[in-house]
Amino acid sequence: MNAANxxxxxxxxxxxxxxxxxxxxxxxxxQFAHLPLWLVGAWCLAVYWRLEVFRGRREMPGRLVKSIxxxxxxxxxxxxxxxxxxxxxxxxxxxxxxxxxxxxxVSRRDALLSLMLAYFLAATLFVFEQTIPYALYGxxxxxxxxxxxxAQQGRASARPQRALSMSAKLLAQAVPVMxxxxxxxxxxxxxxxxxxxxxxxxxxxxxxxxxxxxxQLSKSAKPAxxxxxxxxxxxxEQRYWRGLVYTHFDGRRWSEPGVxxxxxHWSRGRSRLQRxxxxxxxxxxxxxxxxxYRVIQEATHSPWLFAMARPNSKTRGVRETPDDTxxxxxxxxxxxxxxxxxxxxxxxxxxxxxxxWERRRNxxxxxxxxxxxxxxxxxxxxxxxQPEQISGELLDLFHQGFTYTLRPPxxxxxxxxxFLFGTRQGFxxxxxxxxxxxxxxxxxxxxxxxxxQGGEWVEQEEYLLVRQxxxxxxxEIWLTERGWVRVDPTAAVSPERIRDGLQSAAADEFMEDSLxxxxxxxxxSRLRLQWDMINYRWYQTVVSFDSERQQGVLQRLLGEISxxxxxxxMAAPIILALVVLLIWLNISSRGxxxxxxxxxxLRFCRRMARAGLARNPGETPGEFAHRVAxxxxxxxxxxxxxxxxxxxxxxxxxxxxxxxxxxxVRSFWPMRIIR
Amino acid sequence: MNVQSSAKGNRxxxxxxxQERGQRWLSRRLPPAQSVTLDxxxxxxxxxxxxxxxxxxxxxxxxxxxxxxxxxxxAxxxxxxGLFxxxxxxxxxxxxxxxxxxxxxxxxxAGDYGQVKVxxxxxxxxxxxxxxxSWPPEEGATFDLVDSxxxxxxxxxxxxxxxxxxxxxxxxxxxxxxxxxxxxxWSWVDLNVExxxxxQPKSAGPLPIGATVGExxxxxxxxxxxxxxxxxxxxxPGDSLRHVAWKQYASGRDLNSKEYVTGSDTRLWLDWDxxxxxxxxxxxxxxxxxxLEAERAQVPYGLRIPGHTLGPGLGTAHKQKILGLLALFxxxxxxx
Lengths: 675, 336
Fold this sequence. Notes:
Chain A is of the alpha+beta class. By secondary structure, chain B is of the alpha+beta class. Chain B is elongated.
């Protein structure tokens, strides 16, 4: 066996190549969206080259060409991605190794390597998205890759229909094991920090608020949060999902210094230990009214989470901030579920005092601008009004002659003044912004809170669906004795926005830019809600199945979780499956079933053999009966009877004889008779 | 037993004692028989290199799923685990129930491939795909028994044979990696294959027609000194120098003189003694070549070797008889 011969033997046939390329295409296709264009081109080129080699029109690339290709690929990656420690470059690296492998795809071993890589690349798809369509596509990819693996076995296995059906059959058989392992296998949690999906900006609340931003959000019907309650569900006017607090105002834009960079935000959060110490000084009531809920948040690519006031979360990686909001340890790159308990503000005794730093932070105003608003505030102070009264005056002002609209006029440099004393038309951010500005001007610590308000209650699945157009901005002011108090200036103008949501508050303007006014068609809305429910169910049962839920499920299945029970739970199905399989193997390895009479006669022969007289091959039943009579005379008559009955049953097809044969054989125990 | 595959080299697990033990164990478990039906007692199964790579991929996927806390990645990893778990069952089922039956073993010349025909048949309804029969390190033959190919088939496999005589073939390896190549299921069956290996034909010049007399005068040479070359004999002082086989002497052989005889016998005797001065194997090879040539030329021929004399004749049966005698000529031979 020389080298040339072995190479010839393992040279990949056409079907193998085509299957490998099909598998690669399947896994790369959705990734092409993330991948740079040159990589897509390179992959196509590599495939083309390899096929040309197969046709004999071109040589396999030499070492020089390969080295150049590797260098070019590395250079390309380096130029495309500045940051290496991120998800996209890693996926690109995998795609590059695919591509480079293609130009030296020679042996079976190369083919296998390429397909193993394909499995891995298919999995990275899920790191980007965990939605149902992606899951379905992932299944498709797996079927194709497995079919490609089967196709490497030979020409007969490589026929598309056969390869695919075999792959699907095998995978279907693997599903029970998958389900079992999915439920039982412990989830360890991240072993080391991994790069996260830093995908492009998505719609959602950003780290700052300037006029017009929220009206943009109101055009999107995408789900933002899904909230399931354990126990009481808060009434609509209490459904304020706080996300971010803005304390800094530069005259136009509200923002929170340091918030855009998730890490520092996170480190400002209180760790669990610190929280323990703090809860001593300001205890949260162990009993009493509170809401318990589980929030499933869509990917936002920012670290802040959404919860009602006074949140407390035990979910790993979630912390509370001093601003009473929740943050995640990293930007939320995928759907995230977290458990929250919130105490309505009324049930907690207020904080005594604001630290001076906090006070300064919440009174900050730009040095100049908006003179009318400042004047108005000073006038109120001069009148000797208390903070609550000033707030009341301001809300009264809003109540008189202000309009809530999705299409507010454009504002100039002194946006607060222009809004308060000019246009008087605005969306929630205008009201919140001007309210906080004026309150601060009046010496009352105040801040803008951004988040979502309201949500659609989904009756069948019992969860609250909050969409992007539920994005809202409101205010909080600091009152001595009472602490931070929520004030929603929008409610003063348009109470229906708070009670019934945006759609009824601005019915004419709602979603009017959308291509098709789908929200107006009841059927489509219902369909959309159905789809959301399926998504919710999917997310609840599959995507967010964490160690906590795992424990719950196991507890329900096993009663209590002990190693013994777990072992039995794991082993029982496997043993059962093996037994079934063995039986199946046994049955399917048997030849065609013999007629009943023959089976009975063979039974007789077996018993005779045990008694020491086996029927010779080729010996007719008659001859055998004679031989039995000769050698074991005591069995002779019985053997003759059985033989006669057999011959009658088998050759004359006599059912009575068959019955008789059965009876005779059943009672035929030669060993006993001999003894 | 002539185990040819042991020529691969001795690694520790191939040490002769271990191998001997293994062979003993195998022959207890898989006794030689002309027909063998593969079942769970006869089949072995282990993951292949590809299977191990597959496990590695699963491990990597598990890491990916753990680090990203991504349940879909977990699901994929577990699906592949399931695939891996059911795979040996399928690979096993692909071989179980396969019946192998030795058909004819054709005689062969040393230096050629000995071939055996094996009938492969289903015993149940299950298909057998991508099954390979081989004598490692030979490639062997791969076959499928599926619906289109029918219930049975014939497969021909071969191995190189170098020694003449009766050669017991080593066990045949039956293996398959169907359906995904992640597991390999195999067996070593002994179908009692015995090759009759004829000596390797080596030409010894033209046929010695009329070189020796016929029956009854076996040992008596015709008068030497004629025109017809009869063969070589060891040089003895007194032989004509013109008759010395200088060419052979130059090529390192002993000093021989050519013998010429006169008078011709139309009957051809392939005589051991015509090839005096060569070693046993060479003589056998030369005789073998002559047999073939005589058969080709359709000249009736007889054989005279120590211990056997076979009258002249023609035809396949005659040829095979003579070649069989040559093949089974004792290795130690007789003294010249």
